[in-house]
Design brief:
Blueprint (H helix, E strand, L loop, with lengths): L15 E2 L10 H6 L1 H6 L8 E4 L5 E5 L4 E5 L5 E6 L13 E4 L5 E5 L4 E5 L5 E5 L13 E6 L5 E5 L4 E5 L5 E5 L1 E2 L5 E2 L4 E4 L5 E5 L4 E5 L5 E5 L12 E6 L5 E5 L4 E5 L5 E5 L12 E6 L5 E5 L7 E2 L11 H4 L7 E9 L4 E8 L6 E4 H7 L2 H5 L7 E4 L2 E6 L2 E8 L4 E6 L2 H5 L22 E2 L6 E2 L11 H7 L3 H4 L7 E2 L17 E5 L2 E5 L7 E3 L3 H8 L21 E2 L3
Parallel strand pairs: 14-15
Antiparallel strand pairs: 1-26, 2-3, 3-4, 4-5, 6-7, 7-8, 8-9, 10-11, 11-12, 12-13, 16-17, 17-18, 18-19, 20-21, 21-22, 22-23, 24-25, 25-26, 27-28, 27-40, 28-29, 30-31, 31-32, 32-33, 34-35, 36-37, 37-38, 38-39
């Protein structure tokens, strides 16, 4: 336990149904084979993970008994397997269990640094690992596992501070996340869940927050910080998504469960520290089974309470809402006034028919490089199209908009250079430069053979790679459309409209890096925000809109949706 937790009211919509009976109804063939196992089957010992199959059968990672225990939907004991050890089929402190769409059972065999696969009878099928470590085929203390509808496996590779993604056969596909507190940075992630639309939720446990990534592992957003109030966390762990897209989080050291909209808006929560109904002691894994029943591994109470589902979101979705329309008031949750341009950068809480949603422009600004990345704001945050909010800056544009591939609203950088396009006549590559490549060392970026390097094509020391990574890399700027080279405007090359030739520049989807040899900060982001404003509002049509000087805003102010 890291810190004492808080106290919350019970969730009124959730009613407790009987707890699973932990006493074993012995399976004689197992007991005869292993007398030691018979003693372990008397009850749970700090269970930390739970999974449910399509028939409603329940699988519990009975962590300190080194077992997986299986129960029928009514909570009657069926069988157990495992036992302490490192051979195939044996377990060492398993922390989580999940059942795939094909019925196979996947176990995070935590202190063996591997994933083991079993059938539903407990017969060993496979092991995924090449030993402890940080390589592509390795794990270091994996603590959570889940699957999507296609059978792809997502593993919280906890001490490697990453999420690993494997295909149904166990082949490594990719990993995302790294140690740190920057964009996509994780600290001991202890939970992972996947929404039906493919969004990946990560319990960033020691940062006391939830992070959201897209199906390719790209950072989308995050919410939460340390505390005991609604929407705050102390050691969040297990997570699950219900049929309405709501996210349930076991807020472990606050001894409660919290529920959020797909976009991170707080809905409700229940639990406090204790051993009675609707009380928990460090709940860990959670899983949602048929009928929406929520199962919680209540670690220090050594029980597994089961709750009936919250009701589905009622009614057909509003067609405007499906397109991203906001509904109701918009409240300022945090604000920073920038006197240089007389504008405010804010975090908003937006009331919607499907629950509140947060649009954290200030949080995103600070997370992705602040003034160095974005410059000063050129506008207020405003609703540019129904339900989609935006803010223009000197060096780019940030949008809070609906991503249909994820099924949620996200806040992200606008692909500015893709819009400006480099004046290449609407070519489908949108301003990629195909013929000039950098032979110096660097990091590959994008599908066109380009890289980000600290040297330009002619060998000039630009520091672009260090600056690029400090800003958050592709999460901040997108992929490279050119290498770093002198702008000439020659046929077959790209150049920012109206830019001075002769500067070393490198073009990315969402921004342009420039080299200023005589400046204190030699690597800078070009001022493309003015071009983007002109594209969106030609003929200075932006005048008189949300680009004029604005009074200071403060947290707590309610704004009308606009």
């Amino acid at each position: 336990m890291r810190r004492p937790g808080g106290r919350r009211q019970f969730l009124k919509a959730a009613a407790l149904i009987p707890t699973l009976v932990a006493l074993a109804q012995p399976l004689r063939s197992v007991l005869a084979a292993s007398p030691a196992l018979a003693l372990q089957l008397q009850g749970f010992k700090k269970p930390r993970g739970v999974g449910v199959d399509a028939a409603g059968n329940i699988y519990v990672a009975d962590t300190e008994n080194h077992l997986i225990k299986k129960y029928n939907p009514a909570g009657s004991y069926l069988r157990a397997w495992g036992g302490f050890g490192s051979s195939f089929g044996s377990l060492r402190y398993p922390r989580d269990v999940a059942v795939g769409p094909d019925g196979r059972v996947f176990v995070a065999d935590t202190l063996n640094d591997r994933i083991q696969v079993f059938d539903q009878e407990g017969v060993f099928l496979a092991v995924y690992s090449n030993g402890r470590g940080g390589g592509a085929e390795q794990f270091d203390t994996p603590k959570a596992v889940t699957l999507d509808g296609e059978g792809r496996l997502y593993v919280a590779d906890t001490f490697n501070n990453r999420i690993k993604v494997l295909d149904a056969a166990g082949t490594h596909l990719f990993a995302f996340g790294q140690a740190g507190s920057g964009v996509g940075g994780l600290r001991n992630p202890g939970g992972v869940a996947v929404s039906p639309r493919g969004g990946i939720y990560v319990a960033d446990t020691f940062h006391d927050q939830i992070q959201v990534f897209n199906r390719a592992g790209g950072f989308v957003r995050k919410w939460g910080f340390t505390g005991g109030a609604a929407g705050q966390f102390v050691s969040p762990r297990g997570m699950a998504v219900d049929g309405s897209g709501r996210l349930y989080v076991s807020d472990s050291d606050n001894h409660r469960i919290q529920v959020f909209t797909p976009e991170g808006g707080y809905l409700d929560g229940w639990g406090q520290r204790g051993f009675r109904f609707n009380e928990f002691q460090n709940p860990k894994g959670i899983a949602i089974g048929p009928g929406g029943r929520l199962h919680v591994a209540d670690q220090l109470n050594n029980t597994l309470p089961v709750f009936v589902a919250l009701p589905p979101v009622a009614g057909a979705p509003d067609p405007n809402l499906a397109a991203g329309s906001s509904v109701g008031p918009v409240a300022v949750m945090a604000a920073l006034h920038v006197p240089e341009t007389a504008h405010n950068i804010v975090d908003l809480r937006i009331d919607r028919a499907d629950g509140p949603a947060d649009a954290g422009f200030l949080q995103y600004y600070n997370l992705t490089g602040g003034l160095a990345r974005w410059g000063y704001p050129l506008s207020e945050v405003f609703e540019e199209t129904p339900g989609n909010f935006v803010q223009y800056y000197q060096r780019g544009v940030v949008d809070w908009h609906r991503r249909e591939d994820l099924g949620i609203h996200v806040i992200e950088r606008r692909l500015g250079w893709d819009l400006i396009g480099g004046g290449r006549g609407g070519a489908p590559d949108q301003g990629a430069e195909l013929g000039i490549l950098n032979a110096n060392e660097g990091v590959a970026s994008g599908p066109w053979g380009h890289k980000v390097s600290n040297q330009s094509v002619d060998g000039t020391e630009t520091g672009f790679l260090d600056f690029f990574q400090w800003l958050g890399g592709e999460m901040s700027l997108g992929v490279a459309k050119t290498d770093a080279r002198s702008d000439t405007g020659a046929p077959g090359t790209v150049m920012l409209p109206g830019a001075t030739p002769g500067f070393i520049r490198q073009y990315f989807q969402a921004g342009v890096l420039e080299f200023h040899p005589d400046a204190a900060e030699k690597a800078q982001v070009a001022l493309i925000g003015y071009h983007l404003r002109a594209l969106a509002y030609p003929g200075e049509d932006w005048e008189g809109r949300e680009f004029g000087e604005t009074a200071v805003l403060e947290a707590g102010v309610a704004l009308a949706a606009r």
